[in-house]
Each structure stands twice: as structure tokens, then as C-alpha cells.
Amino acid sequence: MVETYTGCRPDIQLEEIMARPETPYEDKWISHLITNSLNIEGIRIPVLSREIMIKDRLGSIMVRLGLYRMAYHFPPGLYFIGDENLAVKSANTPVLVTCNYKLTLDAVRSQLRKDAYWLLVLDTKGVNVWCAAGKGTFGTEELIFQLVKNQVGKVTGAKRVILPQLGASRMTPHIVKKLTQMNITYGPIRAEDIDSYLDQDCRATEAQRTVSFNWRERLVLTPIEFLMSFKYLGAVYLFLIVYNFIWETKVFSLITPIYQVLPFLIALFTGAVIFPWALPKLPFRAFSLKSLALSLPMTGLLWMGRDIFMLGNSTGGFFGLSLLWILAIAYIALNFTGSTTFTSLSGVAYEVEKFKKTVPWVIGSSIVLMILGLWV
Question: Structure pTM?
């Protein structure tokens, strides 16, 4: 059950929540991290290592390159990290809540330095906390489900759980308290600040509540955006073969389209690398419009170098193709709306809807210009 509303219905009943179906997951991505298992109150609790191993680093690279990106998940439930002798009922041992996205797990456990932690993992379908909160899978019902199923209060002796601040948008603390007798506390933005936050009696500083979004953090997503879009260049190449044969050179050639596909490769680089790097400096509010600040100058440069890329002498044909690479840059730019601090959920939905309506007009205009290029 995915929550499609903010928070939780005030009339929700525990029986309704516990009747929800569970999604089965394999532990193949974390099996090497399980060093032991505890049995407390009849609940099996895996003990996780804090060490980042070679398999974890290779998995991170794999996901960054787009491989198994939507399948890098593991079973939700209650885990323990630290000295097993301290796995006793104690309100002093923190209960941290996170998602079942393996990259997030690695980011959290590698930053934990204290003797003992409980880690409650919610079923977010293998999606990180921020995105899962936006989609509703990191929400009130799922938290209540895992708290009750794993008997967290009974097993740990804790009276509260610590949630990542970025997961707050779908949480309704008073409903959680009512149905589970557990309180919610929101931790810091970054995993590296968890121990400091705990040392300060669970009081976050202003810096720990502030989201940073510097150019290094923005460029983290460029490899996957570049590679996910790169696969479409094959289709572009085939299209250019047909385009040249029908409209431009009237000759079947496999060489000329190689040069002509280079502007699309440049457009891909512009959208996936230059756009996120230059994001704060670009004008306009909508990301698709922001991309014009890069795509229009790029089009001008390609016009001056059209002979190098064998784009022909047809003005109509050139601008027909240019609309396609401008559209490609705008599409890639839109992919960054879900990973920035510059957007809101409603704003993204509005822009995406407008973009969808624009795409047929842009493609249609491109085709018309290329046809007109026969005579212009």
C-alpha cells in the first residue's frame, strides 16, 4: 500500500495497517554484512558490520552506472549494529530509522562510531529516504507497520525512534504515538552528523538542519544521467541515416551520420554535466527553461561549425535537428528536478505536465522544418 496523501488518515486503524501485504526481498546485497543474528523476544535480528567492503564499493559503482539501479534493495526489518553484548533493553540505545536502499544503508552504517545502535529499516521499494517520502513509501503507515511487526518497543526498550529529517514530509507523529506508544524525533540531514546529534541529547544544530547542494553534490548524478541517455544515441544514429537518405544528401551513408550524431552527444554532455554544474547561475525558474540558457548558445556554436559536423547547408534541416537536441537537453534537465533543493513536489508535477504537452509540438515543428529544408 503506497500512501497517496500527506501524512496519515486520522481515522486509520492498526488492524488496517497490519493487514497490508508485504513485499518479499532477497538479502543478496547485504548477506556479506551479516556477522551474526540475535534472538530477542522471538524476533530474529541480524547484526550488521559497519565496514565498507569491496563488494559494497563495486555495488555503489554499479548503481551509479545505472546497473540494478531499481533493484539495489534488501529486506526491511530491525537490525543491530555494534557490540552484541549491548543488545539489551535500554532506552539509551538509539533506534535509527532508514530506508531499504543499499546506498543509504552504506552511508548510514559507515558513519556510526558508538558502541550500539538499533536500525529499523522501512520498505521503501529500494528508494532513498527523500524520494520515498515524496512518493509516500517512507510514511506513517509503513513506520507503524515495522514498529509493530518487529515489536521495536518491546525488543529495544526504547520509547522513541530517530528519523532522518528528509523523511518528515509523510510522517504524522501523533498517529504513530497513538498506535505504537513510540515518539518520533527527527535527526540531522546528513548521516555523518548522527553521532554528534546523539551527543547533543538529540538536538540538531542549524548546520545539521540545513541542506547543502554544492557543485560536487550536484555532479554525483551525472554518470547515471549520462549513461541512461547515452543508450538513445543508437536510435538517433538510425534516424540520421534515414534523414540523410530521404531529405539531406539523398545518399545512403553510414559515415555522415556519425558526424551528425556528435551534436546530440554534445547535447547529452551539456544536459548531464554542464547543466547541474551551472544550475544556480542559470536564469528562469523552470528547469526546462533553464536549459535554454545552455542549449541556445550551443546551437549557435554548432551553426558556425555545421560543416565540421556535416549538418549540410539546409537552414530548415539544421534548425529541425536543433529542436531535437534542445528537447534532449530539456529532458535531461528535468531529470534533476527530483534531486535538487530548488524544487517542490507540486512545482515538479506542474512542469513535467507542461513539458509532456510541449514535446509533440516540438517534434512536429522539427519534422516540418526538415521537410521545408528540401526547398530552403
Answer: 0.79
